[in-house]
């Protein structure tokens, strides 16, 4: 792979070239890792640009672009690449080397139909996952990561499938000649707060993860179905104090992160924010409370046990755990205790009904290996 000064090439559809009002340049030699195919479209009445890397098919989404952003699209694309790579946990030095290697910037027309097809498929996926679009930023980091983890064919003349994000890591390792991950992480113990049961997990988590990604992590490690609302209560720099949630004691530093914008309209004594765009690193040190299913109110206490300065992967790892979570929609802690009481008595009138109902829950025994397989795709 070329290591010297390279040209960042954006191969645009005719529609995008028209929208940018730029004259395409002619080029025959380019490095695929520094070349992106791009198209523009409108979703939610907002102009959106999707870029797909020619080497690894990594997807980057730019959303809500106005005239001033389109006028400076070259600068915005450079910033978007940097933000996307940071969101992947790629080392600062690797990002700087990639961006500094691109000494010039060019726009051309598209080169082949297969690349255009890849961009169009990425656009279709944006529509599928449009609920993940974050209106407060042009840079759609979470959605870009999601789309870049979708399996794709290896291309013409090649068999099998691959993940674009993994191919990006491989390309950057080859480009820099070394590992691309080295970030800060924390080891936390997450305990499901049930007085009569020990249900907990210990996990290592990169601190750059967003709270929606932390939510996904917690869903995986406890085998929840992600079919209910959730929220976080954050106690930065102090131990968890449940009195702060009831207003019985002043907890002015407590922050509540909600998963849906509609929740912000409800009155609360605790300051509320939308969890999108919020990062774990902004609230450490401190303890957290994660509540899943606001009806049953499954409360998970998150306590930091250790900090790691040289975490060398870009996804959480479950280190240990104990116990299986209760069935969903069982009625909270009280309903769970009643459920266990009935299931311990085959002569109970509700035994057969609850037995059939619980079997539909598909609750697996805690399996460390299977949990970590799921975490690898975050």
From TrEMBL:
Residues 185-370 form the Plasmid pRiA4b Orf3-like domain. Residues 9-166 form the DUF6933 domain. InterPro entries: DUF6933, MM3350-like_sf, Plasmid_pRiA4b_Orf3-like. This is Plasmid pRiA4b ORF-3 family protein. It comes from Jeotgalibacillus proteolyticus.
